[in-house]
Amino acid sequence: MTDSIMSKAATMEIPINSNGDTGTLPEDDSLEQAAKLQWSLDEKVGSSRGNRDLQQVMVSGPNLNETSIVSGGYGGTAEGIIPTSSIKGPAVRYNAEFNKRIPVTGLGSNMHHSSSSSSMTAEETTRGVAVEKLETMKKWGLNTYKCTKQMISERFGRGSRTVDLELEAQIEVLRDTKRKYENVLRLARALTNHFYNMVQTQHALGDTFADLSQKSPELRDEFGYNAETQKLLCKNGETLLGAINFFVSSINTLVNKTMEDTLMTIKMYENARLEFDAYRSDLEELSMGPRDAVAMARIDAAQQQYQVQKDKYERLRSDVTIKLKFLEENKVKVMHKQLLLFHNAISAYFAGNQQQLEQTLKQFNIKLRPPGADKPSWLEEQ
Questions:
Q1: Does the pTM of the predicted model rise above 0.85?
Q2: What confidence tens digit (pLDDT) does each residue in 27-69 have?
Q3: Are 212 and 219 in contact (CB under 8 A)?
Q4: Taking a C-beta distance cutoff of 8 angstroms, is the pair 185, 171 a contact?
């Protein structure tokens, strides 16, 4: 019965008027009843396998990227075929159990997101470094301005400065001592150079006397005595040079390393003192001004900076005091040893006491260089 009704519905003609509207059909009720009957049969037959068929279709169905959409009617040309791969849009996947569309994020979007995040991070890092440098330059410029202003005020007698009389006196004594020790070092080096030339002259003179002793038989004994004397003086002179070189090296270490290190700390202390006075003067000027909200905020900031500079100044002043104390003790110990060495070596040499001269070097653990060691090796010359 169903087949006969459907075949009848399929063979019916649908009249169309001149405006393209369908006309009134006498058998519309029959077609409607046939459609309802077909729908009820399909529902009864397919209800038991609906989900299973849908899952099978979704699993084994064609690839969406390879399907096409036909835009014409039946029997149309191929011009109406549009490949689905050309359609742009977010990819989706189906959940067969819940019959839902779930968007799928592609690899390209992840890569784009990661690259954009990394570029943003690099940009933020660069911006942070630039801001930090700008703040550093700003603080340096403000500090330099205040210190220069304080220095000019002190030189023209319009500004006050913090003075520690006892410490300033010790610093002046140290600077004067350094100048005097530098003079001692300069003279000792000059003595070393002159004495070295004398020893080299004595060595050459001894060789000449020895050569003449071999070539002049009538004066062999006289030339021989003088050659031996010059060689002995040359040997003792080399021993004395070892003692003087040790003396010069110790004085050089004391002046150019120990004292210089203390003077560097003193320089840092003086800079801290200047900064402290600059911020102190700034705080005093602000304290004498108005007391509104903006001024109070500036006074609080100046008070904090003043406290920081005060702590720095007091710390460096303590460091200078300690270093001056240790420097004085070290200077006395070193100079006591070096002056005793210099006196004993010079006395033994000019007294002709070779044993005492050698004993002096052993007493101070001085080792002489072998002959020819004064010339630098080829590796040291590189």
A1: no
A2: 445 445 555 555 555 555 444 454 445 444 444 444 444 444 4
A3: yes
A4: no
